[in-house]
């Protein structure tokens, strides 16, 4: 019998030229699709505010004890669904929706410069692209030094690497919200599969 898993998927509120944020629209569509009967999916809209992120994320991790937290954000430059490999600690100078940025320009004073996800994004990318989804997935090492990157780093730090970040293009460029939701579903299920596989491997290597 498979254990139930808890997964949190977040999108962001509107900001800048994004009067509608494709990430939150896609995440709401994903909630309708669900992740199957063995996965409890919780979705949340994240404010585009540094201080709000600092307050919200610890409470999400604490409240739900998720196996995986996936943050989804929109990128005006993206034309594919992009899996981010790591979050960065420094370089936060762009003003948020409250016209604020951290005085230290960093996420976590004394924290590592960069934290990588435990999930092998290349493997996820390859698997999803070889399925017949009709949505192209790619990988990236630069989540953009704004709220996306900031949120990702914070979550990687809190969750000891059990987090992922996915950038989506704006709606209709080229994908619909439903297309994006289908891609997110495929991506998250592959991530869970890989994590499960890695846990089994670790258990085997410890001789249990």
From TrEMBL:
Lineage of the organism: Eukaryota, Metazoa, Chordata, Craniata, Vertebrata
Source organism per UniProt: Astyanax mexicanus (Blind cave fish)
Catalytic activity: Release of an N-terminal pyroglutamyl group from a polypeptide, the second amino acid generally not being Pro
Catalytic site positions: 84, 148
Localization of this protein: Cytoplasm
SUPFAM superfamilies: Pyrrolidone carboxyl peptidase (pyroglutamate aminopeptidase) (SSF53182)
Keywords: Cytoplasm, Hydrolase, Protease, Thiol protease
Protein name: Pyroglutamyl-peptidase I
Classification via Gene3D superfamilies: Peptidase C15, pyroglutamyl peptidase I-like (3.40.630.20)
PROSITE patterns: PYRASE_CYS, PYRASE_GLU
One annotated Gene Ontology cellular component of this protein: cytosol
Role description: Removes 5-oxoproline from various penultimate amino acid residues except L-proline.
One GO BP: proteolysis
